[in-house]
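Following up on my earlier thread - several people asked me to post the actual chain instead of describing it. Fair enough. Here it is, all 527 residues.
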Amino acid sequence: MKLKPIALLAATALALTACVNTVDVQSRESDAPQATPTPADTPDPEPTPMADAVAIDAPMPEVPDGLEEFYGQDLVWFECDGFECADVTVPMDYENPDGETITIRMKNAAATGEAIGNLLVNPGGPGASGQDMADFANLYFSDDIVESFNVIGFDPRGVGDSAPVECLDDADLAAYLDSTFPDTDEGEAQAMEAVNTLVAGCEANTGTLLEFVGTREAAQDMDVLRHVLGDPRLYYVGFSYGTSLGGMYSELFPQNVGRVILDGAVDDSIPSFDQTVAQAKGFEQALDAYIESCIAGGDCVLGSTLVEARATVSELFENIETTPIAVGDRELTQTGLFYGVAMPLYDDTAWFALDIAFDEIVNGGSGDMFLTMFDLYMSREGDSFANNMVEANWAINCADAHVTGDLSEWEAHADQLALEAPIFGEVMGYSQYMCSIMPGGEDGPLGPFVAAGSEPVVVVGTTGDPATPYEWSEAFAANMDNSVFVTWEGEGHTAYGRAGDCINGTLDAYLLRGEIPEDGLTCGATE
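Reply from S.P.:
Thanks for posting it. Predicted structure:
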């Protein structure tokens, strides 16, 4: 039974941009290598007064009993990296508001025109920083959106600058992520010991907060943010895991829902194993789509047929399990190859990176490019990490988890997963061991989210999405009382900002003017 270091994350658009730009630097001769844009060198969008944006006209909702101190606090803004930031105080435990408190960091990318409100945003994960979305608001959103909204990127509790989860120092975290344990009794014992050490580190360095970093508490934080920012209803865009956050908010505060877009929905109503199977199969389908594109382009290094190419990939994973590839003073292990292959599958515009990486490893025995993409996935440079995304991912997933079964049942699930998804399922394995010993957890699945009585919530699904399979978005929308479902017939993870005007223009109109899309709207990949 394999215990993978982490589950597949919802890679953010910024990570994919970094992947594409980094691969460009390494694979294309240029006198001026490209780099990921920074707030300082990204041009400001030109004001476009034709947006004709209209704010939601509604009274401020009542403040929940016992939380008046938090909802009534005054914001103190301070300069941060060319933006304005503020720390908002919230209870660690909403059931005990008189107890310990924590702060939630938010960053304001101020509207370039007259703001109609504050657009809260979450890029996914769990564990990804919302502040990054504020940094690059004009890459995520159109000129009309950044003209008409203050884009508020916040770090959910446990993430980044909001009471961050800490488990291991960077060197130990790097060693853990590089590890691959053999699928033997001895390997399983080694893996469990490594997880025991990890969880002990989380408990020692993070403490009681581990029990309260879940999506339920983070959604309650969002309502405090909405109120202190002065919006009577919530404006929100959540990608991938951000849909769980938005779904939970809509369930807890249906009367406070304003204009909410949930793109690449996670079906939180199904068991953990069913989620893992769907995701593994989604990545297999994305891999097949890449292979077919590779073959169509001619001279595909993996083979001339889908069957032959899949066999080549399977053989790479099998061989590297026992024979890692040296890359400088490090090794590309099976874990690194797994994430290195997965990362470009989040966005079909990054597939060329797989062309380069597979050519390196098949023809040259080099793992350089796959290791680069693995490190980008983990926000890693050498043995240092830019953020706590990985540790926050573990903690939040476990705080949300409903653990069922035992080691023998997880072993049977792992065997079934390998049958369902022969390439990715075999490598991923399945276990809930980490969450079974991590503090926190839920008594049942987080969902379904019904949000009875809310304003319409727009749910977006992408037919070729590997990380949040299309059927999850369909189910998410079907579970909600007042959802509107929109489909993009594209490849990769999420649609808004990646698709054409049929999607982007429609969703912009909804945020700007409250124009509700047609339920069942389907947009072609190039529309």
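The first strand starts at residue 78 and ends at 80. That should answer part of your original question.
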